[in-house]
Design brief:
The complex is a heterodimer of chains A (about 190) and B (about 190). Chain A has about 190 residues and is mainly β. Chain A has 3 helices and 16 strands. Chain B has 2 domains: about 50 residues, no CATH class; about 120 residues. Chain B contains 2 helices and 17 strands. In chain B, the strands form 3 sheets. Chain B has a 6-stranded mixed beta sheet with strand order 8-10-12-16-17-14. Chain B has a 4-stranded mixed beta sheet with strand order 9-11-13-15, with no helix packed on it. The longest helix of chain B is centred in the middle third of the chain and has 7 residues. Classes of the chains: A mainly beta (about 190), B mainly beta (about 190).
Chain lengths: ~190, ~190
């Protein structure tokens, strides 16, 4: 068996041994990293091992997007790309609209044919910063981007007492936006509540 | 185009094709990082991508099993947060669960040589109180250099299985948070994400 070690001092070196490939320094990948091979349904093939005492993985990313101000709002590419969008409801189910198709395309890389793949997905949070318990928000669809319905699309206010709220859950909702179809002019993006 | 395949059986082999294939996994020592995409990416476009194939959305992680429960007011430590799941049993209204000190945050993120502004982890706070007193809640509380949000964003209700419709705290008995480094001196900002 052959063990391959890649580091900053010796480059790529092969030894007798097992255990896969070891990167002794950082691994940088401008392109996608693919984990697992094409699997059978119901069997997960992608795995990240982080060690026994390393359950959370340290990520690096931008800080949450600055709030756009109170009231109705259409989420922008810049906001959703941070992974954390803050809005402020001003009444019952204040409309917050998903990004338009062009903005979703930008988020996923820039062009439909070159950068979008069916199944690509991002996960992001929507935080309602309103302090009035009645000032909830409702996530609405845009061109090609669908949303869930009912409680699934609503986010409660960040009030001190939620006992009278008509919207369940905390003032933050987590969503997954997934590329469903890229055959048309605009991609079809489905958004699910997590 | 050149495709590089690295395996335990044949070592490094270059053939026609695209990309690099690690047939037997990748390992890396402590504190090394996997960098995906362009770290100076344009606003509004996500350049980091992990593909795990269409039918393998979830990625298998490796971590530790459930840890000891903390009773009453608790000051979080780097040990607790490194496990990713903190259990506290509330013994009153809005019992303080205080963020770690700066020194603990520095340790959590790999020490002074590794902590980087923008690094973050995601973790869960679980309120294990299981009785009828709906007011036995938890409140994530700031520490020196550690900022948290307000109101519902920092409150976690109990896991009591009975009627919680009159509870002033929304959601379930788990709050999930993102703690992001804002200064290498160990300062962070923490956001509720679900």
């Amino acid at each position: 068996m052959i063990k391959t070690i890649i580091n900053n001092s010796k480059g790529m070196v092969q030894y007798p041994g097992e255990g896969g490939t070891t990167f002794e320094n950082n691994l940088n990948s401008p392109g996608p990293v693919t984990l697992g091979t094409t699997p059978v349904l119901a069997e997960l093939a992608a795995r990240i091992n982080t060690g026994v005492l390393n359950t959370p993985v340290i990520h690096t990313g931008p800080p949450p997007a600055a709030g756009p101000g109170a009231g109705t709002h259409t989420i922008t590419a810049a906001e959703i790309a941070t992974g954390y969008v803050t809005v402020t409801g001003t009444g019952a189910n204040t409309a917050v609209t998903l990004p338009v198709a062009a903005d979703f395309v930008q988020v996923f890389g820039g062009t439909v044919t070159a950068d979008l793949t069916v199944g690509d997905a991002i996960e992001w949070c929507l935080h309602n910063d309103a302090t009035n318990v009645e000032h909830t928000v409702a996530l609405g669809s845009s061109d090609g981007a669908s949303t869930p319905s009912g409680q699934q699309q609503r986010v409660a206010a960040n009030s001190t007492d939620q006992s009278t709220s008509l919207v369940a859950g905390p003032p933050v909702a987590r969503f997954r936006s997934i590329v469903q179809d890229i055959s048309g002019v605009n991609p079809v993006i489905y958004t699910w509540r997590l | 185009m050149v495709k590089t395949v690295i395996s335990n059986s044949e070592g490094i082999v270059q053939t026609r094709g695209d990309g690099v294939v690690f047939q037997d996994g990748i390992t890396a020592p402590n504190h090394t990082s996997l960098t995906l995409g362009d770290t100076s990416q344009a606003v509004g476009t996500i350049t980091a991508r992990i593909r795990s194939n269409v039918n393998t959305g979830p990625i298998i992680g490796t971590g530790i099993t459930e840890q000891a429960t903390n009773n009453g007011a608790t000051i979080l430590t780097n040990t607790m947060l490194s496990q990713g799941y903190v259990t506290v049993t509330s013994d009153g209204a809005n019992v303080a669960v205080t963020m770690p000190t700066k020194a603990h945050i520095i340790e959590l993120f790999g020490g002074a040589d590794n902590i980087t502004v923008g690094d973050y982890i995601e973790w869960t706070l679980y309120n294990d109180f299981n009785s009828t007193t709906l007011t036995n809640t938890l409140k994530l509380t700031a520490n020196t250099g550690q900022t948290v949000q307000l109101n519902q964003c920092v409150l976690v209700r109990s896991q009591w299985q009975g009627n919680q419709s009159a509870n002033a705290v929304a959601g379930n008995a788990n709050g999930r948070f993102r703690t992001q480094v804002t200064n290498v001196d160990g300062s962070t900002a923490t956001f509720r994400i679900s």
